[in-house]
Specification:
Strand order of the largest sheet: 6-7-8-3-9-10
Strand content: 15-25%
Radius of gyration: 24 Å
Largest sheet: 6 strands, mixed
Number of strands: 14
Bound molecules: adenosine-5'-triphosphate
Amino acid sequence: MPHTTASDGPLLDVRSVAKAYGGNAALRGVDLAVAAGEITALLGRNGAGKSTLVSIVAGLREPDAGTVTVAGRPVRGARARGRNARRDAEGGGPSAVGYAGQDTAVYPNVTVRDNLRLFGRLSGLRGAPLRDAVAGTAERLELAGLLDRKPRDLSGGERRRAHIAAAVVHRPALLLLDEPTLGADVVTRARLLEVVRKLAAEGTAVLYTTHYLQEVADLDARVVVLDDGRVLAEGGVAELSARHGLTAVEVAFEGAAADGPPDLGIPGTTAVEGTGVLRIPCADTAAAIADVATRAGALGARITGVEVIEPSLESVFLTLTGRRYDEEAG
Ligand SMILES: Nc1ncnc2c1ncn2[C@@H]1O[C@H](COP(=O)(O)OP(=O)(O)OP(=O)(O)O)[C@@H](O)[C@H]1O
């Protein structure tokens, strides 16, 4: 079912959103847009503000300033909705937003089928459309054989799939996923990415936070880099790599793992921590390798390996923030 917006604008439109907790600014004026059918990956280190932003878009938190619209309609936080929540649900048909936060939100003691029914009903689905939605979603997330089991009796990966199923059962126009693959094994991760790709291909706008840069490439997602509550850069992976990525040559030397690499006197060179490898940022890799060989030869240092590092999201992040992106820090 294709999702259309009330206007020609993006499905999700976030403008100048700011949020502080006490005196700590978590978001400092964020602008972000996601079109129908587009996957946007929100990248940033721990504490960058990703979850805060996603929960504001989900209507779970109030921004201090700025606006969020989904399909042209303003998102109101839980406090502002207050007693009108039911009226909103009744008036608006199935909810436009599906949200899967970091913690699994399915009820552990209720079967997967009843969980999916419940989440479908909460979004306004009833009768045959609800039954079809539950069956279709279970199929999509390979839960069909697990519908009569309770989440407390499922494996971690199965429970995570049930959690995502609860967020998509009503076929939201906008899907918010906050680190959906955190701790998932390779197979579960691949399945979840496949589901996200399919939903996007059918017209769902997806906003996705992750610490795994490889997933961003696998999803061919548009990237928004958030750092300290601000958008540092946005664009496609190739575009960002070309604009901000580094090309470098990494050179390993005999005996350097213990003693550290030799000082070749090349400006900008850094030692890769704990490896004895020298990283040399450069524009012309062939010229850099020839230069290294000459200088190493003069010092009597024996080269044991050379690797060319192409621009990547990792190096984009390093350029923009001056820090490495720690993928396991989720
Ligand atoms: N409920 C809260 N009360 C006080 N401070 C908070 C609260 N939630 C988040 N923060 C702070 O706001 C900042 C942004 O946190 P947020 O959880 O949005 O970051 P994140 O990018 O999602 O991080 P992570 O990758 O670790 O999940 C951090 O400094 C965090 O400590």
